[in-house]
Structure formats: structure tokens, C-alpha cells
Amino acid sequence: MERSVIENKAATPLRRREPIHLLKELKAIFYLVPFLVPFTVFYLWPVINGAWMSLHVWGIQGMQKYVALANYKKILENPDFYSYLWNSFYFVLLCAPTVLVLGLVLALIINQRIWVRTLIRSVFFLPYVLSVSVVSFIWLKLFDAKNGPVNAVLHALGMNTDINWLTDHRFVWWAITIATDWWSVGFVMVLFLAGLQEIPTDHYEAAKIDGANAWQRFWSITLPGLSSVMKIQIFYQIINCLKLFGQVQIMTGGGPGDSTNTMIRYIYVTGFKKDMFGLAAAQSMIFCFIMLLIAVVQFKITDRKDG
Amino acid sequence: MKKLALNIAAVLLALLFVFPLIWMFLTSLKPDGVNVYTLADWVNWSDLNTDNYVKVIRDSQILHWTWNSLVIGVLTTVISILLSSLAAFSFSKLPFRTRGIFYVLIVSGLLIPTEAILIPLYETALHLQLIDNIWAIILPGLTNPIGILLLKQFMDGVPRDYIEAAQIDGSRSFRLWWSICLPLTRSAMVSVGIFFFILSWNNFLWPYLAITSEENMILSAGLPTFLSNNNMSLNLIMTASAIAAIPTILVFILLQRHIVQGVAMSGVKG
Q1: Which three-class secondary structure state does DSSP give residue B126?
Q2: What residue stretches are annotated with the ABC transmembrane type-1 domain (chain B) (predicted)?
Q3: Cis ω on the peptide bond leading into residue A97 (within 30° of 0)?
Q4: Considering chain A, what percentage of its residues have pLDDT values greater than 90?
Q5: Which of A5-19, A122-136, A152-166: highest mean pLDDT?
């Protein structure tokens, strides 16, 4: 105790060390309480309780039996788990890069002096405010094999068979990716736009004088200037893609076969369709663990940049 | 020349983006069973009517769900902002020794999404007898710490002099919050509030599980029930989607500057 105080003093000599004023502490904490109450009940407690439940065979009616790590063993021995895990990450590989590149392209376009710029920006952003059910409904019908406009356009372009977008395992992930990109690219665009506006214009002027062409300016000024937004966005999109549920639930129901079942849908089916809460809690814990790993990597990467 | 090409590309892209929405509205206005498929269907406006809207509104509880979504969205947003502002005030203006511990604890709320704690959250809601109650949606919606982080940044910008002057006048800390920090961070609160409202309005998975009866359903979670109803034609499904989309689109058009700003702010920092 004593030592840590001295060390602390050496580390931050400017700050005066005050003894804990109980009243002052309580007063400050008092202002946190209104937030901490729901936070504890609906976030902290479920996290802890989830770990506890995962060690039990647990039905929707309540606890049945303590089984230690048997649930985890069951999950890790089940090949389904790995295929759903792979599906989730496969979607990350498809969706995160496409939405980031498309968002960047849109931001670069909007950042130019183009006609009706605000209107076009609004159009790109608009789908983001729709709910996932509306987005999924629209694309469910747009991708309809028989009567969907997507195939109609492809027919007009000369294709002569119908693509079964939502029931053919070769196309289904692309259908979901396109719907998701359309939905969320406006969000990415807005963040990149904010980033672009923070790059000083005189950097571009200087590069122009040096004779750099547009492409060189993009690589040596724009992209580095966006690196912090980019880092945040990459991780945000990875996490967002891993949370995929609504689109799959509405557009494909996990099909064809099991090919679009994801981690979240796996948890949902195990817990709410098969009534195996303990097993589903163990799956949730594994999912939490993956999320924490990603957060650690993100923290390391952003930290290195700051230091 | 280059400029022209860029302009045309931008306009074409914008048309491509708005196409699904126009298609949705057009299909919803066509008589039951008529598809918008060929170009002729697109330009034939003679058969447009609002029968589908009448039908969907009459046969389902969609307007009631819209109302529920609105009530839940407003309550979640207003309560969230107040709680976040109070906590941000404490972190920003009341120097206390254990703040570091509490700050880390609260920021940890960003790490694990609701999706990852569905099962124990359901268990908690079950115990508190909140299942099929709108508070089951509102209360877990209050745990997002992003509002605290953002509002704290803005409160850090409130000059110390203001606070000290008020303290000399004998103001208590609650008054400092209410009459100085709250008004001075108004624009930030609007941005954060809009962000919270969108999150709540579009929340899907948790309401989908926690609400079981038709009358407590919210819009985003209620919509999929149209799919399981086999009598629903394409036109009626698009009508339901359109009804669900119209309020959001209207709000977006009215508040778009704030919305874009709020999203940019929350996203860059979060």
C-alpha cells in the first residue's frame, strides 16, 4: 500500500495526492447510480450468470443439473459448431471489405464538388435508418428467383437462366452481403467523410505543386490521413458482421441446408427452439470470448499507433 | 470532361441506391398480384391505388406496433440521455478517487454486445417477469455506455470558470449539472439522442425474443410475422415494409443534418 503510493507520486508529481474523502466519493458515485443500476442488472449480471448457466443443463423452466464443462465439450466436439463459426467469419470476409471499400468510394465521390451533393449523400445514407426487417423484406423480394427485379435486370443483360439467389449455396452469401452493404454503407461513408474533412487541404496543394497525380495523392495523403477512422471502422465492421442475425433469419432461415446459419442463429436455435439454455449459454460464452479477443487485438493496434 | 463523368457516375449510383425503395413503394401501390417486373410496369401508373395500405392496416396491428416502437424509442432515448448525462457529469466535473475503476467498468460495456448475452438476459427478464412487457426492451436499452463517453467529452469542454463561479455562489452540484452542464451540451445530447433512437427503433433480435404477444410487439420484430402468414402476397408484404419505412424516412428527411452529424460523432468515437 505504502509503496504504491510513493510510486504513484513519482509517476504523477503534478497531481496532489488527496486522502479519500468518503463523502466526496459517495456524492460522485451517487450520480453514477442511475446508470449503474440497469447496467448491473441487464449487462454485468447476465455476463456473470451466463458463465454460471453454461456449467449446467438448464431448461427454460430453470436449473436442472450441474455438469461442469460438459456443455463446452459437447460444443467443441460438434462439427456443426465449426461450420457455423466458419459461416460467421466467411460473412466477415465478404461483407467487411466490400462495405469498407464501397463506403470509401462513396465518400470520395461525395467529397468532390458534384451536382446536388447533399441530396446524393442523403440517398446513400438513407437505407441505414431502415430497420433490418424492412431491408430484409425488400431484398428477399428483389432477389426472388421468378419475379424478382434482380433477375429481370440480368435477363435484360442477356442471362438466360434464373439465379436462385436465396436457395443456391453459391449465391446466397452474396445476396446477404449485397443487402447488408446497401443497408450499412451509408454509415461507413459518413465516417469516412468526417475523416476526409480533417485532412488539411494544403497537403494536396503541396503535392500538386510537386507534380503528384490523383492516384499518388490518394495513396500518400488521403489513405494515411484516414488511417485512424479506417482502424475503428475495420473492427466495427468485423464485430457487426459477426452479429449477423436478422438478415439470415428473414431472408434464408439459415438455409439452404445449413449454409447460412451463423453463431448467433445457432445460439438462438439451441436456446429458444431446442430449449437447451445451458448449452446455448456455453455457446454465448464462446462468442463473448471471441468478442473479447477481437477487442484485445483492437486495443493493441490502436494503442501502438498512439504510443 | 472528367468532372462530367464523375457527376454522371454519382447520379447513376444514387439511382441504383434508391431503386429498391422506389420499387418497394411502387409494388405496394399496385393491385394485389401485379408485379413490377418489366419496364412497362414501371411506367404504368394508371393502376396505382392505396387499397393494399387499407388492407394491411385493417387486417394487422401494424399501426399499433408503430406506436409501440415510438413509445419505446422515445422512453429509451430520453431516459438514456439523462442517465448518461448524470454519469458524464460525475466523471467530468466531480474529481473522485475511484473514478478510474468505475470508468473502466462502464467502458467494458462496449466489449460484449447484447447478442452475446441473449440467453442469460432472457433468464433475467424471465425472473423479473418482464417477458412480453415493453420494459423488457427499454431497460436493457439503457446499458449502452457510448452516451457517457460522448457526453463526457463535451462536458470536459465546459470551462472550469463556469463551474467555479457557480460553486462560489453556493450552487450544489445537482444545480451545476442541471443549469450549466445540461444546457451547454444540448447539441451533443441531440446527436447522441438521435443515435439512441435509431438503435432502439431498429433493434431486432432482443424484441423478437422478449415480446411474445401481438399487442406488445414492436415494428421491427413484428414485421416478420407477415412472412409466416401465407396469404400475404408480394404486394402486401411490400406495403407492410413501406408502412414501417415511411416514419423513418420522414424523420430522416426532417432531421437529416442532425442524424448524419450524430452518427458521424458516435461512430468515430465509438
Answers
A1: helix
A2: 66-255
A3: no
A4: 45
A5: A122-136
Alpha-carbon span A5 to A27, nearest angstrom:
24
- Report the Cα A298 to chain-centroid distance in Å: 13
- Is residue B141 within 8 Å of A302, Cβ to Cβ? no
CA dihedral B34, A249, A189, B193 (to 10 degrees): 100
Count the helix, strand and coil residues of chain B and give each as a percent rounded to the nearest 5: 80, 0, 20
Helices (runs of H) and strands (runs of E) counted in chain A? 16, 2
Nine cell digits for residue A58 = 438448464
Residue of A nearest to B266 (CA): A191
Distances in whole angstroms, Cα of residue A139 to Cα of each of A250, A292, B32:
10, 32, 19
| 3-state class (DSSP) for residue B97 | coil
Q: What ipTM score was computed for the predicted complex, to two decimals?
A: 0.88
Q: Longest C-alpha distance within chain B, in Å?
A: 75
Q: Which cell numbers in the block locate residue A156?
A: 435484360
- From residue B174, give the alpha-carbon distance in Å to each of A48, B86, B160: 33, 9, 16
| Segments in chain B below pLDDT 50 | 270
The pLDDT score that the predictor gives to residue B17 is 94
Is residue A159 within 8 angstroms of chain B, CB to CB?
Answer: no
Q: Which long-range contacts link B214-217 to residues 24+ away (Cβ below 8 Å)? A: B214/B61, B215/B61, B215/B64, B216/B68, B216/B132, B216/B133, B216/B134, B217/B61, B217/B65, B217/B68
pLDDT of residue A84: 92
Return residues 218-257 of A near B (CB < 8 Å): 229, 232-233, 236, 239, 243, 245-246, 249-250
Is the distance from CB of A183 to CB of A103 less than 8 angstroms? no
Going by C-alpha positions, the residue among B81, B73, B114 that lies closest to residue B201 is B73
Query: Could you tell me which of B157, B243, B145, B114 has the C-alpha nearest to residue A245?
Result: B114
A16 secondary structure, DSSP code: P
The cell for A131 is: 430497420
Q: Write phi, then psi, for A65 (nearest 5 degrees).
A: -155, 140
Q: Strand ranges (DSSP E) for A253-302?
A: none
Query: How many Å apart are CA B259 and CA B192, to the nearest integer?
Result: 9
B186 CB contacts (<8 Å, ≥6 apart)? Answer: none
> How confident is residue A8, by pLDDT bands cut at 50, 70 and 90?
very low
Candidate from B13, B113, B259 with C-beta closest to A291: B113
Dihedral sign, Cα of residue A48, residue A51, residue A55, residue A56: positive
Chain-centroid distance of CA B171 in Å reads: 36
